[in-house]
Design a protein that fits this description.
There is one protein chain. By secondary structure, the chain is α/β, with parallel strands linked by helices. The chain contains twelve helices and four strands; from the N terminus they run H-H-H-H-H-H-H-H-H-E-H-E-H-E-H-E. A four-stranded parallel sheet has the order 2-1-3-4, with helices on both faces. Strand 3, helix 12 and strand 4 form a beta-alpha-beta unit. Helix 3 packs antiparallel against helix 4. The longest helix has 32 residues.
């Protein structure tokens, strides 16, 4: 966005660093608007604007600054885009901004409620830096008869979601988030002896994150649950180039491809990857998940 279009309060109140952040935010807004337009999905943009409103509020950015920026962005698009496309884009942006403005609810905790006591205890151990206690808790749950699937879905998954929520609310740091994720992955690896001991079915799943996406732990859980069910998994992890994915499918003779997509802006890349898989491997089943 040209400097002349930046609101005076941003220039005076946040300085040069604020201007850079403003430009970064505008790029994120545009990426999500673009994805929503291409998929004709207003809820994608609705969800993003509610999320960013909460995040910026937790960082002390006044709410009016977000909506002023969105208005300026809409005005800029009106001048720069063909009229028909501009009307659609600006209309979608205004509609979603209005919904975000009217929603005042904060995201609810993922570890509060019946059946989530262990997930909460697991998370609190990690947040206090006590990885050994978190691992010991998992072992106690296993000894008491809890299944590996339940540990993944009812302990690891909600605790990871809660970490993301607390980061959004500025209640934990990026360092804490990374520590909790790394510790959870390490604890998961301690269960692999049991997971890999299940009888094999002869089927193979290739599990990968889309290029540009660094959120891999959810897909790691999916791959492990396939292993628990007797599949062999080829886990490629985060940010894998499409060409490498397509080549590896043939190398491991995959019966299924599982693709994880966390960020709305990566939907186009996902579509291109599926097209590449179809071109090379025909009607091979493709499972797409993630946020």
């Amino acid at each position: 966005m040209p400097t002349s279009r930046i609101a005076p309060t941003w220039r005076c109140g946040f300085g040069e660093a604020g201007k850079r952040k403003c430009a970064e935010d505008a790029a994120h807004h545009l990426a999500h608007l673009s994805a929503a337009l291409r998929t004709d999905s207003v809820p994608l943009l609705d969800d993003y604007l509610v999320w960013i409103r909460t995040l910026l509020g937790s960082l002390g950015v006044p709410e009016r600054e977000l909506f002023t920026q969105l208005n300026l962005l809409g005005a800029h698009l009106s001048r720069q885009m063909p009229p028909a496309l501009a009307d659609r884009a600006v209309g979608m942006l205004a509609q979603s901004a209005d919904k975000a403005r009217r929603r005042s609810d904060l995201p609810e905790s993922w570890v509060t409620g019946p059946g989530l006591e262990v997930a909460n205890e697991f998370l609190e151990s990690l947040l206090s830096g006590d990885r050994r206690e978190a691992a010991a808790l998992v072992q106690r749950e296993m000894a008491a008869g809890r299944s590996i699937q339940s540990l993944y879905l009812d302990v690891f998954q909600p605790s990871q979601r809660e970490i993301g929520r607390r980061w959004q609310l500025n209640q934990v740091s990026v360092a804490q988030e990374h520590f909790c994720t790394a510790a959870t992955q390490l604890i998961m690896s301690g269960l692999y002896e049991r997971i890999f001991a299940t009888p094999r079915t002869g089927a193979t799943v290739l599990a990968t994150c889309i290029g540009g996406d660094l959120h891999e732990i959810g897909l790691r859980m999916v791959a492990d649950l396939f292993e628990l069910d007797g599949w062999d998994s080829h886990f490629l992890g985060a940010n894998t180039p499409a060409a490498a994915i397509v080549a590896t499918i043939g190398q491991c003779s995959a019966d299924l491809v599982a693709i994880s997509v966390t960020l709305t802006r990566n939907l186009d890349e996902t579509a291109r990857l599926i097209e590449a898989i179809r071109a090379e491997h025909g009607d091979l089943p493709v499972l797409v998940g993630g946020y």
